[in-house]
Design a protein that fits this description.
The protein has helices spanning 2-20, 23-28, 30-58, 129-132, 148-158, 164-168, 182-185, 193-205, 286-289, 305-315, 321-325, 340-343, 351-360, and strands at 61-73, 81-94, 100-114, 172-173, 178-179, 216-224, 237-251, 257-272, 277-279. It is α+β, with helices and mostly antiparallel strands and 362 residues long. The radius of gyration is 30 Å and the shape is globular. The relative contact order is 0.13.
């Protein structure tokens, strides 16, 4: 019996030494421990990387989409013609559950009157409907006495908490295809069909770009007519072209950019010396065109428009509105950024995007 007890005590003592990691045990197993530690470290790193990837995939997302349609009219002796594009832009912040956290809406309604000889104002400037505010002058014709921006903002608030599927399911009716739900009909009676499509698309294409749920979302638009040509100056073949640049931007409490998206639409209309106006086709944004925009071959760095735009938008993260305004560009080239940290990834003109960001953060 004593011998058995002694054996049991010896076994317990040995277990205790191993469990407590005594000096002799540590020395004897140093190679094994190092191997085990390396394996554990590798597993931990792999797990951390997987967790980081999962967090990135599931984090708060920023999205933007644009829906465009055109209106044309030929000029005659009694009235000017019209080359018009209405581009509805929606920017959203989307939570991990796929529900909208924040939404912003705006429209670039670029109207270019065309005279009977095909001439038009090549120096025209444009403001978005959000920029126009009361100057858009819709309140007098509104059944609820609200201006365009007021109704748009109310609808943007209405979709918060919805998924893309729920946004698409919003019912519209009446003479203007306004929302029929009583919770929003008192604040918005205007046509929301393009709103719905733009918001749904923005929610569906949203990506993790660095924003958090507490960030402030903003949307800015900037339009120019720099590529337009008068028929008289171009062998009788005129071109009305409005290029609108869109910036969806999120900022933190310190005013620093946490995410941004850059997109652009080009609306082109052929114009003759007889005042005839013809749209050159459907308008697809440059982000949606991807390789079909076909800029890579002409790029000094062999990158497509969307690749350069995305690189520049990512480079702005961490910067303030003042920092964006201070970005230096190559005036003798294409007004691309000169900073070495981005110049290798973006050489195209960034002035319009900077202007759109400035408007968004104003």
């Amino acid at each position: 019996m004593k011998k058995a007890i002694a054996l049991v005590m010896a076994a317990c003592l040995a277990f205790s030494l191993v469990a407590c990691g005594g000096a002799s045990s540590s020395t004897a197993t140093s190679t094994s421990t190092a191997s085990s530690t390396a394996a554990s470290s590798e597993a931990a790193s792999s797990e951390a990387a997987s967790s980081e990837a999962a967090a990135t995939e599931a984090g708060v997302k920023t999205g933007m989409a644009i829906v465009s349609n055109t209106t044309v009219a030929d000029a005659d002796a009694d009235a000017a013609g019209n080359a018009q594009v209405d581009s509805t832009a929606a920017a959203v912040l989307v939570g991990e559950d796929g529900k909208i956290i924040s939404c912003k809406l705006d429209v670039a309604q670029n109207k270019v009157p065309v005279n009977a000889d095909g001439s038009f104002d090549t120096t025209a400037t444009f403001k978005s409907k959000q920029e126009l505010k009361e100057d858009y002058n819709m309140k007098g014709a509104s059944a609820i006495g609200k201006e365009w921006y007021e109704q748009a903002n109310a609808f943007a608030e209405y979709v918060v908490g919805m998924t893309a599927e729920e946004v698409r399911a919003i019912e519209v009716g009446g003479d203007h295809n306004g929302p029929t739900d009583a919770d929003i009909a008192a604040s918005c009676t205007m046509n929301v069909t393009d709103f719905i499509e733009a918001i749904a698309q923005a929610t569906e294409n949203a990506q993790v770009l660095g924003a958090s749920a507490d960030d402030t979302l903003a949307l800015g638009l900037s339009t120019n007519m720099d590529s337009s040509k008068l028929p008289a100056d171009n062998e009788g073949e005129g071109l009305v072209q409005t290029d609108t640049t869109y910036a969806a931007v999120t900022t933190d409490a310190d005013g620093k950019i946490t995410s941004s998206i850059w997109d652009c639409t080009q609306a082109k209309f052929d114009v003759t010396e007889a005042g005839e106006v013809t749209s050159k086709g459907d308008i697809v944004s440059k982000q949606d065109l991807k390789e079909e925009y076909n800029m890579k071959g002409a790029s000094a760095i062999g990158k497509e428009w969307y690749e350069q735009a995305n690189a520049y938008a990512a480079w702005l993260v961490g910067k303030t509105a003042a920092d964006v305004a201070a970005v230096e560009t190559d005036a003798e080239g294409h007004n691309g950024p000169t900073d070495a940290d981005i110049a290798a990834s973006c050489t195209m003109n960034v002035l319009d995007f900077n202007a759109a960001v400035e408007k968004a953060l104003a």
